[in-house]
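step 4 of 6: structure.
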Amino acid sequence: MASSVTGLDEVVLDHGSGAKLSGELISFVVETLGEVYIGEMEDSAMLSVPAGRIAMTTDSFVADPPFFGNGDIGKISVCGTVNDLAVVGARPLYLTLGMILETGLPMALLHQVCTSIRETALEAGVQIVCGDTKVVRKGEVDQIYLNTAGIGVFERAPLRMRDVRPGDRVILSGPIGNHTVHLLSIREGLGFEQRVLSDCAPLNGLMDTLLTTVGEGTVHSVRDVTRGGLAAVLHEYARASGHAVRFEQERLPIQFETVMATDMLGINAIHAANEGCLCLFVDPAAEQDVLNVLRSHKYGAEATTIGEVTGDAEPLVLMRGADGRDSVVEELQGAELPRLC
Amino acid sequence: MASSVTGLDEVVLDHGSGAKLSGELISFVVETLGEVYIGEMEDSAMLSVPAGRIAMTTDSFVADPPFFGNGDIGKISVCGTVNDLAVVGARPLYLTLGMILETGLPMALLHQVCTSIRETALEAGVQIVCGDTKVVRKGEVDQIYLNTAGIGVFERAPLRMRDVRPGDRVILSGPIGNHTVHLLSIREGLGFEQRVLSDCAPLNGLMDTLLTTVGEGTVHSVRDVTRGGLAAVLHEYARASGHAVRFEQERLPIQFETVMATDMLGINAIHAANEGCLCLFVDPAAEQDVLNVLRSHKYGAEATTIGEVTGDAEPLVLMRGADGRDSVVEELQGAELPRLC
């Protein structure tokens, strides 16, 4: 696809010059974003916010491949930031969008990324308020990297890690491992990508439904399970609470094909990155209520309790096996799995 | 320099895994940023803002080389976003920081970048509220790219492009072309980099001094002169105002060595990127007051009037030569000068 604005089929160095072609590239992006873009073409966007506390976050996105079966880096770039705002209890409002483009990137792919950003922003109810495009020479970046930063407002008390306590139930909103398996399957040519899709989704609607329905103080803290996987999240909570967090191996929601693929890849789903899975710490008395609300939402249909915060005052992550025995889950140094988000 | 936290001399792939080494990389960055980092290690920062309008902006930074004579990409990343907030009349408050790091980047260079970010943020009076680090494989990015997004508050009326009007004086706060010459001189080995330094500077203090001193409504609109140079800024204002903007060639503030270097490089200083130069459109009655205030500040010592918005209802940029004749300055398609910021 040639840009209707520039007449060019691919990104060229002069698209990043700050001169006429830069303006045309920006027009191409802005037109594709459509109604979700509300910038004014000043050096900064001017926005209204209510007084009080806001949430602010940022993420850069370097997914490889940038285009995959049921999404692309554009979708991830909106979901990642929307989810980081949603899990602290904020309502996401505004996103910024930074793009670093490799010379030679087909305009058709840029169009696809911007279309995904548009559709995901529409679903999440957020607006893109300003952007920036940089073009680098061939080989100075791998196709396209994005950055989004976002702000949200607190309409209720913020959720913090420090508010987890012994007895809290640990709930996952959906299966783990699928995003990683989907991307690695494409990268390595394993053939699982048709049956295992990325879970990439904006979860602010799910969070809002949950927090609106259950009583204030019921949900103590939430994280989205991204890089580092469930294990990394649980280690953070163990450290933050000073208590051991235990989960039951048999209760982990993992799709059958994902088990096969992770076995083949030699990775463990508890270390796999996801893009649409929440890990919630909730009042045990409200466990069933929370599960019911989550399961009523399309992004929480497979929500399940996997464990609890124990009374042991040691910041460990424990896995209870089928035999009823606990083993310590060590924190990985790393996993040599770059660019999953 | 090996990281005191990780014991590693350079960035490795596992620094981006989300597991233990990621935590250590983040600790290294956070410790180096010191008191300017106020994040809470939740998924989003939680901030207080007064009710009303805020400004929000973002920029990605891909400067080549990332380390130069009197600065580095870290300094640029703070100045770029601070300046974009300042020129619309906002007081910059909070920045986010996204880093994309190439495997093998020496920790010493990452330390240098973070130190620059720290020092520049301290000078500008802004705080880093959250960050993100991604690590990509060797060759998937050129050393280090940064993104900052920022928000600021309006304590006075926003300044907008549409408020320029015929008769406005066009003032530059300092010389043009130096940042481009400095970086290109290092890149091409021209030997000018000792005598021509980058102008990279946070200009929110200069803007605040100016707007506090001169009466409300005196300064109509301001842009910082970055990619695309003065010519791009003047073209934007010509389009926004619907009037021709004219400058006098002889009044352009260009350092002698910069003239030599741009001649050698075959570029024109009016198209060169800067990182610490404002282009101001001001009420003609207040021209001298504005110049006096700008010149009283270290970043405006060489402020000078270069032209005016004419009464001609044509969106042109005109250059008046030494002979008193006007010529039309065409907008460049591009300049094939990548990665100056």
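step 5 of 6: annotate
 - The domain at 161-328 of chain A is CATH 3.90.650.10 (Phosphoribosyl-aminoimidazole Synthetase; Chain A, domain 2).
 - Helices of chain A lie at 20-33, 73-86, 107-124, 178-188, 204-213, 229-241, 256-265, 287-295.
step 6 of 6: archive
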